[in-house]
Amino acid sequence: MNKNNVSLKISAGRPDQIVHDGIPQIAFSGRSNVGKSSLINKLLNRKSLARVSGEPGKTVTLNYYNVDNSVYLVDLPGYGFARRSDADIKKWSALVESFFDNNHSLDLVVQLVDLKVGLTRDDEGMLNWLCETGTPFVIAATKSDKLNATGRAASLKALEDSPFVPEDTEIIPFSSKSGEGTDKLWNIVAAIAKK
Question: Which residue intervals of 101-170 are DSSP H helices?
Answer without folding.
Answer: 121-133, 149-161
